[in-house]
Sequence to fold (505 residues):
Amino acid sequence: MAKPPMTEQFTDNDLFCRDLPTIPMPAMCRILVTGASGYIGGRLVPELLIRGYRVRVMIRGDLRGHIGRWPDAEVVVADAFNTHQLRTALKNIHTAYYLIHSLILGPSDFEEADIRAARNFRKVAEELHVKRIIYLGGLGDIRVPLSSHLRNRMEVAEELCKGTTPVTILRAAVIIGSGSASYEIIHHLVRYLPVIILPRWAKNRCQPIAIRDVIKYLVGVLEVSRTAGKSFDIGGPEIMTYQKMLATLASIIHRRTFLIPAPVSLIGVYAYLVSLFTPVPNAIVRCLIEGLKNEVICQNDSIKEYLRFPPISFRQAVLRALTREDQDRVSTRWSDAYPPAQELALKLDELDHETRFISRHSRVTDKPAGALFKSICRIGGSEGWYTSSWLWKLRGLLDRIFMGVGISRGRKSRVHLEINDVIDFWRIEDLVENRRLLLRAEMKMPGRAWLEMTIDEINGQDTRILTVTAYFDTSSFFGRIYWYALTPIHFFIFKNLIKQIDHKS
Ligand SMILES: NC(=O)c1ccc[n+]([C@@H]2O[C@H](COP(=O)([O-])OP(=O)(O)OC[C@H]3O[C@@H](n4cnc5c(N)ncnc54)[C@H](OP(=O)(O)O)[C@@H]3O)[C@@H](O)[C@H]2O)c1
Fold:
C-alpha cells in the first residue's frame, strides 16, 4: 500500500515541537532544508511545515520518490558538488539547515566529500546573502585526538564558519530514535545475541539524546535569532557508558544479555562482526565504532540560556522508539539514504538496450487487483518472501559476508511503501497502486537486477494476470555464469512466489 499524504501520517502525538517554548516566525523568508532525504532532515521538514514556515527541500537525483512526500514544500534537486544547482537551491533563502553528510561513502571517502560539499555550500550561501546556516554536527573534545568521523564533523563546522554567513552549530552524540543507525545497532545486538563481547572502548562515556529533542533544538535555534553565530552542545539528561546503554536497553526489552570484556579490541573485526548481526552496513558501522574511542559528552550547557525544556531520558527515548516500531510509524530511517546516491542509480527504463536476461512467470487469477497489490506490498521484512524464506535469507547472509546490504535491512514500514523505500536487499524504483511494484537490487552481484510484480486486467473478464519478472543486465562472463547458475532456483522461487501472492490475497 502506498503511503498516505504527510498530513494524514502525523497525529498530534507524533509532533516533536508542540511543547517547544518558542514562537514560530513563519513570516521569515524561505527556509532551506538540505539532506531532506536523510534521517534528521526527513524528520525536520514536517515540523517546520506544521509551524507554518515556507520550506524548500533540497534532494539529489530523482524527484519521483519525493512527490507527495511534502505536498506543502517546494522541492529542488541539487547536489552540493554542483555550485550551479546550489545557486538554485539557495536563491531567496533566509536560513539554510545544513544536514548533508556522506558517512555512507565509508571511511576512505567521506571526509573529502563532506568538506568539499561544505565549502561549496558556504561560498554560494555567502554569494546569495543567506542570513543564517544551522548545522547539526557531532560532539567531541577537540583537545584530544578524535576519530576520523568526529574530526570531520568539526572540520565541516569550521568550513561553514569561514564565510560571512552566521552559522549556528549544534553538536550531538548518539541520537536515539526509531530508524537511527546507532539505535538499530544496539537494539539488534541486545535482542539477538545472548552474549556480547565488548571492546575496551565500551567503558567510554557518551551523552545520548532523543531524536525528538534534537529536532526541538534544530527548530528552537531558528526561532531564537540570538543563537546565530554560536555553537551549542546538546545532549540528554544522562552521561552513560556504552556498556550501560546496552545493559539498559536489555533490561527494557527483558533480555538477559551477558556483556563480557574482550581481551583485544580490533576496530575492523568488530565492525565486520557487528555488521553481520545488525541491519546496518559495514561502512557506517565502522565509522560509528571508531567514534566509540572518544568520550562524547557536552562541554557546556549554554543552550539552556536560549531554549529551556527538559530533554527526555535514554530510557524514555528507547521506549518511544520501540513504540514507534510496534505501531509501524517509523518516519525516516538511516537506510533512506543508503547506498550513497542510490537515487542516481540507473533505472530499468533508462537502460539504453534491452536487459540481457529475463525470467517471467504469470498466473491468471480472479482475485481483485487491490487484494493482490496488498499482498505484493507486504513482502520482505518480518513477513518474509512467502516461500523458500531460507533461500532468501541465505542470499542475504552471503551478501552480508561480502559486505553488501544483506536482507536484515528489512523495511521501514510493515504495510506502507513509497518509491525509494528499502525492502531487504531491494529498493523500490516504481510503485503504481494496484498495478506495479518494481524493485532494484542493491545486493552485491556481477550485474544489475530488477524484480517486477505487475497486475494486468483481462479485457471483458473478471480476471487478471499476475506476473513476476526478474531482469538481469550484465556484460561480464562471470555475470552470465551467475545468471545461468541461478536459473533453476529462480524458476522455483518466482513460480512459488506468484502462487503465494495469489493465495494470500
Ligand atoms: N543520525 C545520527 O545519529 C546523528 C548523530 C549526531 C549528529 N548527526 C549529524 O546530523 C547530520 C545529518 O545526519 P543524518 O543522520 O540525517 O545523515 P543521513 O541520514 O546520512 O543523510 C545525509 C543526507 O545528506 C545528503 N547528501 C549527501 N551528500 C550530498 C551531496 N553531495 N549533495 C546533496 N546532498 C547530499 C544525503 O542525500 P542522498 O539521500 O541523496 O544520499 C542525505 O539526505 C550530520 O551532520 C550528522 O553528523 C547525526
Q: What stands out?
A: The domain at 346-504 is CATH 3.30.530.20 (Alpha-D-Glucose-1,6-Bisphosphate; Chain A, domain 4). The radius of gyration is 23 Å. The first strand starts at residue 30 and ends at 33. The chain has 14 helices and 19 strands.
